[in-house]
Structure formats: C-alpha cells, structure tokens
Amino acid sequence: MELGIVIIIATIVAYIVHRLRQPIIIGYMITGVIIGPVVFNLVASEDMFSAFAKIGISFLLFMVGLSLNVKHIQKVGKVATLTGIGQVLFTSVIGYFICRGLGFPHMTSIYIGIALTFSSTIIVIKLLSDKEDLDKLYGRIVVGILVIQDLVAIFLLMFMSSYGKSWEFFGKSFIFGIGAIALVYLVARYVFPKLLPSIAKSQELLFLFSLGWCFVLSIGFSLFNFSIEIGALLAGISLASTPFAAQINSKVRSIRDFFILMFFISLISHVTFSDLGIVIKPAIILSLFVLLGSPIVVLLVMGFLGFSKRNSFLSGITIAQISEFSLIVIMMGVSKGLIEGKILSMITLVSIFTMFGSTYWIMYGSKMYQHVAPFLKLFERKELIDKLNYHDKKMEYKIYLFGYNRTGYSILRSLRRLKKSYLVIDHNPDTVITLAKEGIHCKYGDAEDIELLAELDPSKVEMVISTIPDFDTNMLIIDKIRETNKRAIIIITAHHLADALKFYEKGADYVILPHYISGDHASTIIENFGTNFNKFLEYKIHHIKDLRKKRHLKHHVIMGEQDFI
User: Fold this and answer.
1) Across 365-505, where does the E strand assignment appear?
2) Where are the alpha helices (DSSP H) in 419-532?
3) If 0-12 CB within 10 Å is exposed, 13-18 middle and 19+ buried, where does residue 299 land?
4) Angstrom distance (rounded) from CA 120 to CA 329
5) Burial of residue 29, with CB atoms counted within 10 A of its CB: 0-12 exposed, 13-18 middle, 19 or more buried
6) Which one in 26, 113, 263, 474 has a CA-CA gap of 20 to 30 Å to 520?
7) Rounded-to-integer distance, Cα 251 and Cα 235, Å
8) DSSP string covering 345-365, please?
9) In this structure, how many other beta carbons lie within 10 angstroms of the beta carbon of residue 546?
C-alpha cells in the first residue's frame, strides 16, 4: 500500500512537471520532498526504499554509461577534452573559494566545489535530442565534455572511496582500479564483439546479460571497497560502443525509471529542511554560480581555442546544471562523517534550481543568444578567427554555400562545374582549415549571426545554399537575402515536410529534404540499372570510394549513429 501511494503521487507530480516542460527527474525530487518528513512523512519501510535506492543508482549510472562512447572524444578533437578539463578545474577551484567566502569549512568546501563541476548527462542528452541539436557542432562538443566529466568522476569516486585509509591501502586500491578499468576495456574490445552477436539473437537474453554485467561490475568494485557507482558506470560505458547499445538502452529504460524514482525518493525523503533558513542563501548563490559561472568558463576556453561566440555560448548554457553525480559525491562525504548532513539539503536545492533554470536556457538558447551576442565579443579571439578565413575580400562571390559537411560536400562538386565564384561558410574551425588547405575559398562563421550575414553583402549574389537543417537559421537566411535581393536563388535544407512548406512560403526556391531525396535517388538507380548485376557492382565500387573519402573528412560524425554514441 505504501509503495502504491508513493507511485500515485509520483505520477501526478511527474505529469505536472511534464506539462511545465521540465525533466521528469525533477518530478522525482519533488515527490521525495512530498512523501518525506517535511510534508506527509510516508516513508515507513526505510529498508525497502534503501534497497531500491541502491539498485536505482546502479541503473542510473549504467544508463549514463550506455549513453556515452569514449570514441567520441577522438571525433570532436581537442576542444571537448580541453574544455571539459578546464571546466572541471575552474569550476571546482572557484566553487571552493566561494564556499570558503560563505563560511564553510575547508573539507566541506572541497566536496561542494567538486559537486558543482558535474553536469547532468541524462538531462542534457534528452533535451538536445528533443531539439534535434545533437548533430550540431555545439551538441557534439557538449557530449564530448560530458564524457570527460564522467571519466573524471570515475577517478574521483575511486579516490573518495579510499579516502581516510592508509597510503598503502590507497595505493593498492588505485592499482586495482586501473587494472579493473583496463580489464573492462579488454573485455569490451575483444570479448563483446564475439560474444554479443550470439546473445543478441534473443532479446530477453540480451536484456538479462546487460543487467548481469552491470551488477557483476557493481558487486566486484564494492568487494574491493569502491562504490557500486563506478562499476555500474563502467559497465554502461563498456557496452556503449557495441552495435547493441540502443537495444539494451530501450530494454533497460522502463525498469530503470522505477528504480531511479526509488533512489530519489530515498535520497530526498531523508533530507530535512529544518535548516532551510540556513541553507537557502548559499544554495541560491551557488545556483547562480553554476548557471552563470559554468557558461563563462566554457566561453573563455572555447573562445581561446578559436570557436565562435555562438557555439561557445550554447555549449556553456547547456552544461549549466549539476547532476546525479553531485548528489552522490555529497552523500559519500556525509556517510564518511566529513561534512554535515545539512549540506545534502543545500546541494539538493542547488540541483533543483539549476535543473529548472538550465532547462529553459537549453530550450530557448538561440533566442537568448540574439539578445546577448553584442556583449560576447570579448570572448572571441578575432585575430585567430581572421586567420581561419581564406577568401578574397574584394571579390564579389556569386554563390554562398552555408555548411560543408555531408550534403555540402556533394553540392560543392557541382559548384565547381558551374565555373562561378563561390564562398563556403562553416562554423567548424577544423572544417575551414581543411577547406583552406584544399584551396577552396572559405569563411569561418555562423549562419545565425546577423553580423556575418550583413558582412557578406548578399545584394549581388546569384545563389545561396544552406545545408544547415536548423529551422530558425534558415528562416533568418531567407529574410536577410530577400531584404536586398529578390532574384537570388535560395536553396534550403529541411528535415520535416511542415518546415519545407514554411520555407517555400517565406521565399525559398527549392528545399532539400534529405530523407526523400535518398528515396528518390535509390528509385532512380533501380530504374536505370534494373537487375543488371555489373552496373550495381560498378556503382558500388564508386560509392564505397566516395564514402571512404567522406569518412576521412569526418562526415560520419553524426549524433545517433552507433559509432558515435
């Protein structure tokens, strides 16, 4: 009966939170407050909820690991690594000094500073996926930063598990940890490719295997005095790079949600807000630091690396919240008697405030950028951006191509045959550098930057092509071109039929719909080749050669593909 009442309350709260367009995880937190001692005090079976909570935290971090593929770091280059490490270092250090200024003890300030560094992988990936921004440059960078954060979290949790023990114990634990991580890597690299295909023939067996692997590592790490969180996270990461990660994710998700609910209920129901008057002020200050400080740190690091202020801004506000790791870190400190229990209440408030705030930041980030863009110029290295450009400022280009990767690569081949001057505009510095090396006139910039569009002077251009699938960006391009040029041919890309029709109404001359074009192209090939094996073989050889070149140029780095996440 007690469990049934809890689930009913959780359902009602989750529905309200969903209607407010907030992450369901916030609903779980609010449910914990409602059934806890502050409101109804419904948690009588503490042992049951505690057991559920331990399983829930394993599932939570297992799913986080499943959403992350370490190979992603190689594909986004140094920016995610340097930004991720820089964000962790700066946020923890600044957070420490803020806590000291608020009067917290040295050890408490260390724990809080560390807790403030981790962003919520689950919330970020969910919201970026809803916005269809995972395949954008800033989305790929953000996921890379999250991977770095989680790798840092693994080593921090290992260290915290051994804190207070002898140096000999710590040394043995560290060696075991490195050895265990290496063993998990070897299993994922050499055993899973041979074992999983046969297991995956049965969906039920694949489901049981993934659960078993999660608990094998969780129990294994706990036996050596590490937290179960490390084992669960590593189990997920080891399966993330397999072709069956999506299937496992879908199978585990439903059971995961129930146990995660139990975790947050168990966690927050033990939080007493009797000290609310004491913790509310520092909670607000720390929340503002996370919501404002993390974006500034990212702006500084990415700006130093030469990225545009827009990509830096969107990356920064996307990670401006604390995560489930933050609560785990504080729980470990409380359990070891190193920090007071009221700190858990404070960090819980910070997590709720920042999750609420950052959700709206992520959802309306592009609109926010339009208002703050003039104030972000100091975060850009103008001299470095100018060096990226490879074009003749005096030349009147007849064709503008926005976006090079994937679709733009194919279009560029056709532009060369037209024998008209063209300029490629792309927001990825690495792409611009590659184009410049090939002698292609290119410019580094973001199509959503009004200043860039004004600088290009579209009044005399004959054709504008955008391979960028973002609706607002393409609407802006059409607006700016049509203001001064009524005869320019405008070609836009869309992923949805409704968007395509709106582009036509706005003034586009042709809308590229990749999914439909792919089907039409395949249909044309079938009509032309019929059942002629030799023609298909000849085309296959040509297509493979073209795909390999695209892979070399990293056009395959698209969120959602199995080799990416």
Assistant:
1) 399-402, 422-426, 442-444, 463-466, 489-493
2) 429-437, 450-456, 471-484, 497-506, 514-529
3) buried
4) 14
5) buried
6) 474
7) 15
8) HHHHHHHHHHHHHHHHHHHTH
9) 13
Counting beta carbons within 10 angstroms of the beta carbon of residue 349, is it exposed (0 to 12), middle (13 to 18) or buried (19 or more)?
Answer: buried
**226 is written with which tokens?**
């590490």
d(CA 366, CA 369): 5
Per DSSP, the residues of 165-195 read S-HHHHHHHHHHHHHHHHHHHHIIIIIHHHH
> b/e for 165-196, b at 16 or more Cβ within 10 A?
eeeeebeebeebbeebbeebeeebeeebeeeb
Angle between helices 309-318 and 342-363 (to 10 degrees): 140
> Would you give the DSSP letter of residue 374?
G
What residues form DSSP beta bridges with 423? Answer: 400
Residue 286 has a pLDDT of: 94
The letter for the amino acid at 273 is F
Does residue 348 surpass a pLDDT of 60?
yes
Tens of pLDDT along 520-550?
Answer: 677 778 888 888 888 888 888 887 887 777 6
Stated as kind and residue range, the H or E segment containing 512 is strand 510-512
CA-based nearest residue to 478, from 446, 451, 510 = 510
On whether the CB atoms of residues 250 and 178 are closer than 8 A, the answer is: no
* Nearest of 176, 118, 172 to residue 147 by alpha carbon: 118
Let me know: does 98 contact 89? Beta carbons within 8 Å. no
pLDDT, one tens digit per residue, over 283-302 is: 999 999 999 988 898 888 88
Res 553 pLDDT > 90? no
Q: Classify burial at 61, counting beta carbons within 10 Å of its beta carbon; exposed 0-12, middle 13-18, buried 19 or more.
A: buried
Q: Which domains does the chain have, with CATH numbers?
A: 50-256+290-378 (1.20.1530.20), 392-530 (3.40.50.720)
Tokens of 258: 């129930």
How many Cα atoms occupy the beta-carbon half-sphere of 528 within 13 Å? 10
Helix (H) or strand (E) holding 534: helix 533-552
Position of tokens 């009966």?
Answer: 1
